[in-house]
Protein 1
Amino acid sequence: MDHQEDAPEPLLLRAPPDSAGLRLDRALAEVLPEGLSRSRLAALIRAGALSLGGETVSDPRAKVTPGADYLLLPPEPEAAEPEPEAIPLVVVHEDADLIVVDKPAGMVVHPAPGAERGTLVNALLHHCGESLSGVGGVRRPGIVHRIDKDTSGLLVAAKSDVAHQGLARLFAAHDLDREYLALCRGAPDRADPRLMGQPGLTLDPPWFRFESLIGRHRADRKKMAVTRGEGRRAVTRFRVEQAFARAALLRCRLETGRTHQIRVHLTHLGHPLLGDPVYGNAGGGGARPGRQMLHAARLGFRHPVTGESLDFTSEPPPDFRACFVEMNEP
């Protein structure tokens, strides 16, 4: 029986025009869809899954050709190992190709060592059955992007391979609208010379705009950090929605989507998220929230199959609102 019609479509990876002299895996990592890591890309290259002009490129250390269009053949979809679980989901939108959910804080997006059950993937497998896209691989069916375990809010997953690849292209090109609400320690103030003296911070009133490189922390490889010379470009816009005596409510917009980006950027600027035990202070600002106060409040994008403009919003959950009220008390 001929199964070629089920083979995954190649992914087009256009090398950044400013990538001259870089290793192939490092340069193409900049345009990878979320869900594929640089190490996974290098393994796929060594396995002969990458081509340029019809010729296989098998050395991830080879120099990239800036601006060139490489084709990456994703691995064949594997049967999902995670078991479906009847976990309640707040479904904001669902059609034949994708599903948008409002993830609660405390839920891991996809299985990982130590978190094999109770994940969003387990819930989606139960809710969607076999319709989830297999492009994400054995542990990440349907997953195009993720938000941290203790971040609440909106997330989109793919139910068809064509939607998965279309959404992956949107995320790789940063062609989406993503806004987060955050409660941070102190209030960013454009009159603060320490803040405004930070390299990479500019003003686009009423927004602050911070651009940096983000990479692994030198001393703690489980953490990310603002780096110099090595890392991936990260851009966050934020504005003060409301300032309190010891904290502030921020609205943050992502121009890129790096791991822990908002948490790392705000901590670097001296305004860590309330409740962030990794990058900030688990308390701070007088409040004692049980998690980092970050909520994915808005997600807007063009439907990868129908072309329809979609825009979704989510109100912060009770713990976020309670912390906000506490900060607002005299």
Protein 2
Amino acid sequence: MTAATRASDPGLPPLVGIDEEGGDVTRLPWDGQPGAEVLRSQPPAATEAAFAQRAELLRQAGVNLNFGTIADVTADPHSFISDRILGTDPESSAARVAASVAGERGRVLSTLKHFPGHGETEADSHHSVPTAAVDHARWATQDAPSFRAGVAAGAEVVMFGHLVYSGVDAAPASLSPTWHRILTDELGFRGITITDDLRMLQDTGLAQYADAGADAVAAIAAGNTMVLMIQGADTDPTTLIDAVTAAVEDGRIPPSVIDTDARALLDVRRSLAQ
């Protein structure tokens, strides 16, 4: 199936993504490599080895983009993300995040998630917009080191979470120009950015996120290179495309933004053909 998606233009393969973290989030039944619950008690070299093997399995299956590296940090066992983190403190997490990216290097594109960090709250962003009274100083010492380490290790993609750090911005990070500027200006990231599943915003039941097209427009205007939306029987990707097109036509999104994003995606797709 993945080979068929590349057949029409081998020089420009599509991005084929998966969230293959291991442990709780394992999509390929034959992925026997350990997940975070095991890896965080082992040396970082074990994380690198596990993700190298995992990435090779993905490559063999025709997958070239893994949403697989959890850069979130928490020591709270009640947190929604606690079973999936690579470290319970900034130092240990940063070391294993960098190791994860190193293991995937040259095999699949690596993604760091969920920026700016899901570990500050127990709430689950699949059903709510988790909010924490975190300011920039707290984020810089607690949450930033893992993402900084992953960026330095060469991660090509960062996924933005639907999270509110009210001391920085009242908007979810996925829809926040402020958080996109922080990622670029303070962490030096120049790669591809993507939202977490936009349908999660709709599933909160909050009126301001009920319109998937409006969410897509806000996400791209905020600085995301692309949006992620898991397709179901009740979803239609053309509604997102039409909404973004309309936003360009009426000036809410400058055409230069679309041109820049499209070129970035074309460039990374071409790199996968080499």
Protein 3
Amino acid sequence: MSTQSRNTGAGTGSGDDRPRARSVVVDGGARVACWESGPPDAEPVLLLHGYPASHHCWRHQIPPLADRYRVITPDLLGWGESDRPLHLSFDYDTEVTRLARLLDALDLDSVNLAGHDYGGFLALGLTETHPGRVRRLAVLNSRAHASFTRPWYAVFSLISLAGRSSALRPAATRLPYAAIHRRSLAPLVRAGHLDTGVLDDYVGWMDTPEGRRWLLHYFGDYRTPPRPELRRHLRDIACPTAVIWGRTDPYLSPSIATELAGAVPGAELTMLDGTGHWVMDESPAEVTAALSRLLARPAPDATS
């Protein structure tokens, strides 16, 4: 697996502390874009974004965490600045395996792992299937072992059906996905939690025919129902775990958070009032504090 590295002025760092951009090849030549901050020899923290975001969703947490840790923020394959291959599968099991390959490409035997939304869904799967590779786990407003609230379950199920149907796909590929997502995220922009430049990074690529084709390809492999095997193995998670949740999330019920915290031994639950789905944007200091508490907890020795 090959890598390419360079320094970049993007992000919130400065001077020698600027995020270091690199690309890693993880699956059949597909390129994943990553950014690293903090001391290269420090304990690694891997932060996974959710749908439809990119690594920029962690922009508030990166600088304080990078004071002590090697913070790595990838754009998951298909999102942000990473490749969007149409020849690869994006079903859940493949994606979890791909995440393990990302650790390999980054030369990480084990890592502290935090994931928001879809990233938390993948992080939970990796923790259960490769427990020795996860030192500590944080899940933030994610479907995790469950699924979405009823209206959004129907929306994502319909898009998934369109991605699988040769009859529906041509019309679905022409839908204005970028505009739809911009409208759904407009309240976050109006509240000052998200600027338009970051929003463009999240969804601008959906304005292209190639981007829309990949999005339908991705959803063709996506399945909305809960994954019962994830629920069954929650009690087997042995690493220190934090569950961090915005209580007013319209997409994902707080009951997912309480179930996670109740089932995972020793999990710490942080419920944030007046905070919705985009918890890292809406309550950045509280999220950083919860992650810092998790990272301060002793972790069992982790090996690959």
Protein 4
Amino acid sequence: MGEILDGAVTTTRLYWRTVFGISAAVALGTQVAGSTVTGLWFRDLAGLNKLSDPDTADLHEVLDAFRKSMGSLTVASLVGLVGSIIASAMLTIVVSRAVLGRPTSVGDAWRNARPRLLALTGLFLLLPVLITAAFAIGLTPGLAVAAASDAGLSGDLEGGGAGAGLLVLGGFAGMAAAAWVWVRFSLAAPALMLEKQGVFTAMRRSAKLVKGAGWRIFGIQVLAAFIVFMIGSMAQIPTSLIDGIVTGESSMDHLTWTSLIINGIGSAIGSALALPITAGMTALLYMDQRIRRESLDIELARAAGM
């Protein structure tokens, strides 16, 4: 785990111009687009301010606010997905070349990554569906019992209790299944990029490489997620303080252009620092598993002229 993390950090340090050039451009582009969408979507703050007083808000206003929130969230998520795809593709190329001691420019990374972006998009869209489906399957028995007993309408406490118990157990089972799916296909992206595989072939390659090492890979991926969370939190602390001083404490004030710009700067900095860590650790995990199972180190040594 320590070596994988050190490899990602070392790659970032040695090739910082390329790495941060990619991550900063992607983070800034996605954040500007996301903040612009949010600002335009919620430009009618007068209507939203009514929700701060439950006595004056009617059902129509609540539904309108929900529609705006979901619409903005959906568009922002799609923008973030595009940024994640581009950053993951280009940074995987950079890390794979760095293993051989070969620097890569931003232009070279883009030329090598561009032909694989469509396939990587399909993978990034499919994996969340599979993870969500695994979690939903775990909840199905509890939801079925609760619906069959009609506990919410008839007051059947026994049936409602059984349904609630199954929901809790199903929730844990669903989380375990979702985690299993996540780990099983966690190496599909570098397999797709570096082996030029299709979506389903890359998923099968990932499952083969992960087999027998699931707990180790799970631990390393959780560590990467924790590091990303900490980086994002630390980047947001100073901008959140500034935002609180400038815009005040009202939740609706945080939808103004001033607030969006201030918080967007913190989010962009956090993303620019976190993207190389996540992409680097995933790419190095993929290579590590190939070295352990397929003697990739010999091929890498030959390629490096050693």
